[in-house]
Write a structure and sequence with these properties.
Radius of gyration: 22 Å
Largest sheet: 3 strands, antiparallel
Structural class: alpha+beta
Strand order of the largest sheet: 3-4-5
Number of strands: 5
Distance between the termini: 75 Å
Order of helices and strands: HHHEEEEEHHH
Shape: globular
Strand content: 5-15%
Helix content: 25-40%
Number of helices: 6
Length: about 190
Amino acid sequence: MSTPKQTALILAVIAGCFASLSAQADDTTDTLVKRGAYLVSFGGCADCHTPSRMGSNGPEKDMALGLSGHPQALRMPSPPPLNSDWNWAGSASMTAFSGPWGQTYASNLTPDSETGIGNWSAQNFIAAMKNGKHMGVGRPIMPPMPWQGLAHLSEKDLRAIYAYLMAQPPVMNRVPEYAPPASATGKPL
C-alpha cells in the first residue's frame, strides 16, 4: 500500500508523461500542416500568391496554380503613371504590383525546388518572415507583402505555415524578379 505522498508522486509522473506525449502530438507534421492551412487561409496568402482568372462569376482563384505566384507566362506592360496620392497599381491577376517601391510579383510559395521555396529550410522561411529579407538574408521583401505583420507570429506558427507550404503540390513557375523604380521621386510613401 502506498502513502498519499507516493500516490501523488506517481500521479504527477503519469501526468507529466501524458503532457509530454500531448506536446509531442501537437508537433506532428499532420498537426503542423493543419495549423498552417488555417493560418494561410486566415492570412489571405492565396489572395496574392494564387493567380486569379475570369470565371463565370467574375474573378476566381486558379487553384491548379495554387500559391505559385505571378504566372511566368503573364508578361506585364509598363505600369500606369502613378503621380498622385493614389500611387500604386495591381494586375487583374492580383499577382503583380507597382508603386513608388518599383514592380513586385507574388512569389512562388510551392515546394518546387527550382522556382519555389523547395530549397528553403524552415529556418530560412522563419527568418524571412521575421526580418523581411528574401531567404532571411537576401534582398528586402517589398510591398505589398505584409511580412511586418507575419513577423509577430510565433516561431511555431511560422513553422506550421512552412509545413503547410511544403505539403502543397510543387508548381514549376518562375516569377519575374523585383524591378526597382525607374527613378526615385524622393516623396514619402
